Amino acid sequence: MQGKPKTEASDRTVVVDAETMAILKEHKKRQAKERLAAGETWVDSGFVFTDSFGRPLHPHHLTDAFYWLAYQAGLSPVRLHDLRHGAATMMLAAGVELKIVQETLGHVSSTFTRDTYTSVYPEVAAAAAESVAAPIATHPVLPVQKAATG
Question: Is 107 helix (H, G, I), strand (E, B) or coil?
Fold first, then answer.
């Protein structure tokens, strides 16, 4: 299962927020306990998420676990990969620069990112319209005077 990433851009550092980092640190502590319990049977796979023996998790196991969690939470069925699309859309909706979104997703080109993820929520389109209108509202156009006819 371990191998080279799909593309060169797939091998990258992804920055996460402080809360996610705290969760990952807790996971690392639990994994260290699993490593001690496994002893010499531990496989140093280099993966962050592993089974209790350090082996990489099978993608189908992750998918099944995700579906089960979504079901328990009462959510509509959604593919695990759809979370990537949702994250990209939310980043763009939050005003994250396209280049940052492109690098986070590992796309070679920001054109691909733009073409794939620039469908916007109605709320985002409305916010964009308000942003464009704001400078106009603060600098109203002077009333037009009628030219004298004669």
Answer: coil
Note the helical H segments in the chain. 18-38, 59-72, 82-93, 98-105, 110-117, 122-138
Please state the pTM of the whole predicted model.
Answer: 0.65
- Dihedrals phi, psi of 56, to nearest 5 degrees: -60, 145
Q: Say if CB 56 and CB 45 are below 8 A apart.
A: yes
Phi-psi region of 41 (alpha: psi -120 to 50; beta: other; left: phi over 0): alpha
Distance CA 24, CA 21 (A): 5
Tell me which residue of 92, 110, 85 sits closest to 9, measured CA to CA. Answer: 110
| CB neighbour list of residue 149: distance below 8 Å, 6 or more residues apart | none
Would you say 12 and 103 are in contact if contact means Cβ atoms under 8 Å apart?
Answer: yes
pLDDT digits (tens, 9 = 90+) for 108-123: 888 988 888 876 566 6
